[in-house]
Known about the structure:
The chain is an alpha+beta fold and 83 residues long. 48% of the residues lie in helices and 20% in strands. It is built from three helices and four strands.
Amino acid sequence: MYKIEIYTTPTCPDCIFLKGWLNAMALRYVEHDLTQPAIAEEAKKRTGMRIAPITLVDGNVIWGPAAEQIRQIKPLIGQIKAA
């Protein structure tokens, strides 16, 4: 089973869109709030950035606009489900 983690902020439009897509696809994820300084520091250490949204799928770091992230997430989820 794959693990999805997302680093978001409450008012980020791309974060809201990405979470909506994940929910619509019934993909479970763990959300981390980048407005909390400790979480932002954790994101920086794990991914090298603190700009929302950041998605990790089994350790693969994906960042950028939600539409671009979704394009990158789809094949990862497909590969993992097929394994």
